[in-house]
């Protein structure tokens, strides 16, 4: 191995290490999953840290929506979506208690508790 190759290889290793550290430090990539079934959410309550993205995954056949019933921050909704394979994501940026509902089925509801991230 020439010295030039050794230097290039060492450089590549440093870049890879920095990239790996960067992805952890940003706090991104945290996710939680919820199934949207006919007619219920699984789980019905969820506890996550602020900054977590919750992914609702349609697994039933009917039309459902994911709508913010109450909680801090801005309103969000998926709108009516039909069939399995539909995915709706929301990042919970503010700590607090959220009620999530399907406006089409009164009994379809769930809670998301968002805990403050320790600084
Ligand atoms: Cu529904």
Describe this structure in words.
The chain is α+β, with helices and mostly antiparallel strands and 119 residues long. It has a single domain (29-115), classed as Sandwich (Immunoglobulin-like). Helix content is 19%, strand content 45%. It has 1 helix and 10 strands. The protein is extended and about 70 Å long. Mean pLDDT is 85; it is low at 17-27. Copper (II) ion binds at residues 39, 64, 102, 104-105, 108.
Largest sheet: 4 strands, mixed
Helix content: 10-25%
Q: Total number of β-strand segments?
A: 10
Q: How do the SSEs run, as a string of H and E?
A: HEEEEEEEEEE
CATH topology: Immunoglobulin-like
Q: Uncertain runs with pLDDT below 50, 5 residues or more?
A: 17-27
Structural class: alpha+beta
CATH class: Mainly Beta
Overall pLDDT score? 85
Count the helices. How many?
Answer: 1
Alpha carbon gap, first and last residue: 46 Å
Strand order of the largest sheet: 2-1-4-8
Cofactors and ligands: copper (II) ion
Give the overall silhouette.
Answer: extended
Over all CA atoms, what is the radius of gyration? Answer: 20 Å
Tally of structural domains: 1
CATH architect. name: Sandwich
CATH superfamily: Cupredoxins -  blue copper proteins
Secondary structure layout plus pairing:
Layout: H1 3-25, E1 31-37, E2 40-42, E3 45-49, E4 52-58, E5 63-64, E6 67-70, E7 81-82, E8 87-92, E9 96-102, E10 105-115
The structure holds copper (II) ion (CU).
Brief write-up:
19% of the residues lie in helices and 45% in strands. It has one helix and ten strands. The strands form three sheets. Strands 2-1-4-8 form a four-stranded mixed beta sheet, with no helix packed on it. Strands 3-10-9-6 form a four-stranded mixed beta sheet, with no helix packed on it. The protein has a two-stranded antiparallel sheet with strand order 5-7.
């Amino acid at each position: 191995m020439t010295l030039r190759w050794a230097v290039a290889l060492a450089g590549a290793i440093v870049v890879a290490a920095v990239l790996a550290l960067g992805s952890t430090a940003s706090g991104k990539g945290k996710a939680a999953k919820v199934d949207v079934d006919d007619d219920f959410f699984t789980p019905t309550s969820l506890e996550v840290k602020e900054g977590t993205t919750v992914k609702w995954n349609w697994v039933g056949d009917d039309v459902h929506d994911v709508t913010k019933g109450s909680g801090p921050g801005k309103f969000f909704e998926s709108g009516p979506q039909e069939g399995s394979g539909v995915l709706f994501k929301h990042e919970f940026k503010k700590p607090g208690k959220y009620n999530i509902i399907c406006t089409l089925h009164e009994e379809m509801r769930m809670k998301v508790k968002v805990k403050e991230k320790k600084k």
